[in-house]
Design brief:
Length: 287
């Protein structure tokens, strides 16, 4: 019997979490164990969540330890309670009623992870992510998350699926391990997808599974100071961790070009605070 735990992280975004939980409680799949990992919120989130949904379990942490470490805390807790499957889900999302069932339907032998088609919350017909390939030389995701492409009619094997929503069986965690907790935010999903693929398991996009995402809500928005710092830092950690000697020249040139491009964009917009944060992040990630 499938014992599915849905794990959401919350940090001072109680309204988003409540909206996500409401959509999960309308799911066609039953039963669901709903677990909110609260990262020491200051907005009374645990009390409000328990009051609104007494059936939801809230695991309170002593501090905000980041996405990877927070998901690991929830994963350990769920596995100790006997979960056979895990759905790792951003709290700033709304799921379609059939999403969980559609994801579970694609968990065939040899499949280590399944993800849905993710749409923008404020533009509900526009695709934000369908996953993509990981460039074999540069180790970066390619294909721009499938944006602008037609949604496939059948499930598709991918190198990368967004960490916004990932369904995986217990066996994947036992085989691959937990998330790398050095990643506070960003690139932890790319790192984990690479590890899942290297373990011999397949990643599958389930096109009939649908989700809507409030993009970059937890970091203050795209290209905010916090978002640029965390993105730059995590990119440095990821490439420093994964590149080998023969890839190093190509990756370093690619990342230098990316750094120059982002600097030009932010300078052109007069975003000097975000530009300074971006280079601090690169320094901290690479060094």
């Amino acid at each position: 019997m499938t014992a599915l735990s849905v794990i959401l992280l919350n940090w001072n975004r109680c309204n988003d979490t409540l909206e996500c939980l409401a959509s999960l409680l309308a799911s066609t799949h039953r039963p669901l164990h709903l677990l909110v990992v609260d990262q020491h919120s200051s907005d009374d989130s645990p009390t409000r969540i328990r009051a609104a949904y007494p059936e939801v379990e809230v695991l309170e942490l002593a501090q905000n330890i980041g996405f990877a470490a927070g998901m690991n805390a929830g994963t350990r807790h769920a596995l100790q309670k006997g979960a056979t499957h895990l759905l790792l889900l951003n709290n700033d999302t709304v799921v379609a009623p059939e999403m969980v069932s559609e994801l579970l339907a694609q968990l065939q032998p040899g499949v280590g992870m399944v993800g849905p088609v993710i749409f923008y919350y404020d533009r509900p017909e526009i695709v934000w992510s369908m996953g993509g390939d990981i460039h074999p030389l540069l180790l970066e995701m390619s294909g721009n998350h499938g944006r602008g492409r037609a949604i496939p009619q059948q499930p598709v094997a991918q190198d990368f699926l967004s960490g916004c929503a990932l369904l995986l069986p217990r066996e994947t965690v036992e085989r691959v391990g937990l998330w790398d907790e050095r990643f506070f935010m960003y690139y932890e999903d790319l790192d984990y997808c690479l590890r899942v693929g290297q373990s011999g398991l397949t990643l599958v996009l389930a096109p009939a599974a649908r989700l809507w995402h409030k993009v970059s809500a937890s970091s203050g928005g795209s290209a905010s100071t916090a978002e640029r710092y965390q993105m730059a830092k995590s990119s440095g950690l990821y490439f420093r961790k994964q590149m080998n000697l023969w890839r190093a020249p190509f990756i370093l040139l690619f990342r230098l070009g990316s750094g120059i491009l982002w600097s030009w964009r932010l300078a052109r917009q007069g975003r000097w605070d975000a530009l300074a944060a971006y280079w601090r992040g690169l320094r901290d990630g690479w060094l």
